């Protein structure tokens, strides 16, 4: 008699290290978590589901998986998982909260450098046959002020890296003490003061009802008209319509955005501005981050399905 193995459903593209770390004791199935109908059809029979940010594990999806024991999100945050519905259904939820913090911080630094020196628009123009040196004159980061909203793991890594460029770092984070900020080398300010002071504003907050739209018309109005705003954290922290208005009115110098209210996002109005640089949710998309996230969630799944304690990541 053959004993059936627990089923692990992989709903998004994950590092091959994930399957290696799961080992031979599971039946691995795959689906496309962004294709809702397919996801719902493939969830029955799954003991575990592995996701990134494109799969909505809401109450309906959880109800479609009566055998489900664990939802594992290979990344930071759990905003695409209905944790209450999971708890009610007795389903464990895990993530990999430190797996991609370096990658997210590095992409942020890349975007800061990119907008300061117009790398993306100059690249586009040159490839379109335009050799325009003065049009793409940028600014130095040296002695400029970087305003970090959210001085958690990623915000602190951004601070550490951008100080190497000679930037002065100020930060807003109601949960961080002045002593911790000082240790990171950042001066804590109120949000309004940060917005009025910073030459570059980067946001590193989770998406919650309180943080959604926290950068909107009033906040853009406070910023310097030369300031750049960067969001590699979560779609919607910056109000997308307000960003379009700020770019149109030239209330700010420009923006770099990696995350969007609704993803995939391919044709938002503000994409039309030369000084708005966009990337398709690449913060965690490095080989290293994906390997770390994949191994971390695979280990959690192995332990959970063996009935063992899953330690906090
Ligand atoms: C994360 O939350 O860690 C990332 O957004 C995951 C992803 O890139 O899918």
TrEMBL record:
Keywords: Amino-acid biosynthesis, NAD, Oxidoreductase, Serine biosynthesis. Coiled coil: none annotated. The keyword Oxidoreductase applies. Pathway: Amino-acid biosynthesis; L-serine biosynthesis; L-serine from 3-phospho-D-glycerate: step 1/3. One of its GO terms (molecular function) is phosphoglycerate dehydrogenase activity. It catalyses: (R)-2-hydroxyglutarate + NAD(+) = 2-oxoglutarate + NADH + H(+); (2R)-3-phosphoglycerate + NAD(+) = 3-phosphooxypyruvate + NADH + H(+). Its EC number is 1.1.1.95. Catalyzes the reversible oxidation of 3-phospho-D-glycerate to 3-phosphonooxypyruvate, the first step of the phosphorylated L-serine biosynthesis pathway. Also catalyzes the reversible oxidation of 2-hydroxyglutarate to 2-oxoglutarate. Belongs to the D-isomer specific 2-hydroxyacid dehydrogenase family. This is D-3-phosphoglycerate dehydrogenase. It comes from Citricoccus muralis. The chain holds residues 1 to 313 of 535 of the full protein.
């Amino acid at each position: 008699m053959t004993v059936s193995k627990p089923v692990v459903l992989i709903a998004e593209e994950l590092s091959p290290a994930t399957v290696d770390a799961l080992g031979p004791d599971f039946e691995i199935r795959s689906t496309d978590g962004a294709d809702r109908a397919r996801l719902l059809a493939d969830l029955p029979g799954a003991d575990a589901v592995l996701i990134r940010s494109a799969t909505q594990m809401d109450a309906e999806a959880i109800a479609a998986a009566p055998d489900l024991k664990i939802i594992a999100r290979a990344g930071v945050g759990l905003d695409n998982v209905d944790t209450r519905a999971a708890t009610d259904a007795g389903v464990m939820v895990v993530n990999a909260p430190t797996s991609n913090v370096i990658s997210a911080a590095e992409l942020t630094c890349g975007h800061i450098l990119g907008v300061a020196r117009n790398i993306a628009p100059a690249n586009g123009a040159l490839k379109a046959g335009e050799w325009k040196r003065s049009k793409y004159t940028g600014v130095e980061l040296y002695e400029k002020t970087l305003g970090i909203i959210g001085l958690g793991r990623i915000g602190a890594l951004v601070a550490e890296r951008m100080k190497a460029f000679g930037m002065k770092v100020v930060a807003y984070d109601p949960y961080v003490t002045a002593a911790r900020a000082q240790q990171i080398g950042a001066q804590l300010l109120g949000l309004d003061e940060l917005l009025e002071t910073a030459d570059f504003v980067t946001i590193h907050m989770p998406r919650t009802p309180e943080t959604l739209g926290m950068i909107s018309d009033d906040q853009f109005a406070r910023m310097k008209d030369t300031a750049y705003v960067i969001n590699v954290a979560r779609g919607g922290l910056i109000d997308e319509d307000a960003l379009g208005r700020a770019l149109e009115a030239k209330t700010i110098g420009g923006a770099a955005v990696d995350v969007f209210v609704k993803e995939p996002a391919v044709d938002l109005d503000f994409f039309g501005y030369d000084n708005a640089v966009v990337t398709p949710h690449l913060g965690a998309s490095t080989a290293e981050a994906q390997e770390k996230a994949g191994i971390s969630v695979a280990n959690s799944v192995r332990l959970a399905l063996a009935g063992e304690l899953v330690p906090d990541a």
